[in-house]
Structures are given as C-alpha cells and as structure tokens.
Amino acid sequence: MSYLISFEGTEGVGKSTQVNLTLAWLRQQNYAAITTREPGGTALGQKIRQILLEPSDRADLAELFLFMADRVNHVQTLILPNLAQGVIVLCDRFIDSTVAYQHYGRGLDLQMINGLNQIATQGLIPKLTFWLDLEVETGLSRAKAVSAKLDQFEALDLPFHQRLRQGFAQIAAAQPDRFMPIDASQTVEQIQAHIQQTLIAYLPDMGFKF
User: 3-state DSSP helix/strand/coil percent for the chain, to nearest 5?
Assistant: First the structure.
C-alpha cells in the first residue's frame, strides 16, 4: 500500500527540508518513496513554476488556472502512476495551498476552487498533511536569508501572508483527521522527530510493516 503525504505552510517554514529528511528516513526503513512539489513536479510543471514565480500583472483567475494545469499533469503523469506502483509520494504543497493562497489570500471563490481541485486531482486527497506553522514575519525573514531576490509570492505584503496563515489554520481545523499541525519554530531535528513519530503512529493504518 502507498499513500500521498503533503507538507503545507506559509513561506519560509522549512517544508522542503522536512520533505527531504522524511524521504531519507522512509528509505532507511526500506520503503519506496519519492518527493515532488507543486508547482513544478514535472517537466511541464517546471515551466509553469517559472511563470508563476516571476513578477507579473496576471489576473488572479489566470494564476489559479496555471496552478490547476500544473496539478492535472502532476497527478496524472507522476503522482497516480507512483501510487499505483506502491510508492509513497511526499509532496511539497498540494490542494490546500491553492485554497490558502487563491481563496484566503487572493479572495477567489472557495466553491470554485474546491470544484477545480476535485477535477484536477480526480478526487485524490492526501492521507496525511503536515502543516508547518510559523509566525509569518519569521518565515519571511528566513526566506530573505536564503535568497536576496524574493519570488512573486514571497514579495507580497504582510497582510497577504497573515491571511495565508489564518487560512491554513481554518483548513486544518476543518479536517483534523488529516492535518497534523507542527510548530515550525522548533529546530529542524525536533520537527523531523515529530514527523517520524506521527508516521510511526500511522504505520499500521498505512500498511507499513517492519
């Protein structure tokens, strides 16, 4: 058995680091696993990612459809085929980021976004979602420390990022069985230990065998 596990959060919370550490841990347990991300998990997705991260005057709805185009291709050509082969897929951002950024951040209609997500994913929902939560000022400071040039989303104003965090909190509260909130102000090692402990608790349900 295999499952899709997503990692969510605002900018600079350390998702990518935890995705890679989780991959290494799972492989140490002799399980087939891969990492991917949205946008940009496929060759087409990389091109869409470049468009999305560059400063632009594009319409919010156009931005939403770019994310959905990436997701359709990502799910059909990478995620579902790997799941069918028994591979655990660790995804850096998935459907919840679209709800947070495009609904809570941009103000687009939630019902429309949910409908498009349903079409784009063919109903696929992560088995488990790790939400790395952090004060937005701290996360943006971390992002700036990594790169002097902020991308399209990192460069948005503080109220936008505060709405994102509030959005993730509301999404997590509505789906407590799937969401695992983690305090991202902890050390990298502490966060990873929390993730591993959570996965171990899920192992019988996920079909893992040691």
Answer: 55, 10, 30
